[in-house]
Amino acid sequence: MHKEAIVQLLEANHTALLDWLEQQDKDHWESGPEGKWTTGQVALHLLQSIKPVNDAMSMPKFILRYKFGKSNREVRDYNTVVARYQDKLKGAQGLVSPFSRDMKPVQFSDKNYLLTRLQMENKKLQYKTKKWKDSHLDSYVLPHPLLGKMPLREVVMWTAYHVLHHTQQLQTRY
């Protein structure tokens, strides 16, 4: 998937999420199904998932290469990344990103802050994705807690899907 298409997908999926979250009242924000995250916690989880990607893409490339190495395979397409993630989720019930373990309650009073931060981080990721060379998006890798090391292009595609995944889960609750 070309980086412009990924940027468009990031924008569309985040817009759908943020529009939906904006409509949620205090009851929907602070409550959720038994044993599941609340709407506010999902918003925080998505922020905690996108921020490390932005942080990594802000690092000097030699540090990324030193810490994580370089890709030794072809980049997978969007549908393959999504299918791999869905397969891993099926076998990983209860596995949560280290960034989102032990999730504390998220108050309704934090809603505007979280939505603003999500929007800012999304815009940053779009900007960084456009600025990175295609060859670098394909060769530098980041570790994913469930999928292992992935080229940055795949990580950004996964981020776009991750937002859609959680938006769909939230919308089916209510």
Short synopsis of the structure:
This protein is mainly alpha-helical. The protein is 66% helix and 5% strand. The N and C termini lie far apart (33 Å).
Looking at this protein, list some descriptive labels.
mainly alpha, Four Helix Bundle (Hemerythrin (Met), subunit A), two-stranded antiparallel ribbon, 2 strands, globular
- What assembly state would you assign to the polypeptide chains in this entry? single chain
- CATH topology, by name, is Four Helix Bundle (Hemerythrin (Met), subunit A)
The Cα radius of gyration reads 16 Å
The level-1 CATH class = Mainly Alpha
Quick one: biggest sheet?
2 strands, antiparallel
Tell me what you see in this structure.
The protein has 174 residues and is mainly α. It has one domain (3-173): Four Helix Bundle (Hemerythrin (Met), subunit A) (Up-down Bundle). The chain contains 8 helices and 2 strands. The protein has helices at 3-22, 26-30, 39-58, 61-68, 78-90, 111-131, 134-139, 152-173; strands at 141-144, 148-151. The chain has a two-stranded antiparallel sheet with strand order 1-2. Strand 1 and strand 2 form a beta hairpin. Helix 5 packs across helix 8 (152-173). It starts with a helix and ends with a helix. The mean pLDDT is 93.
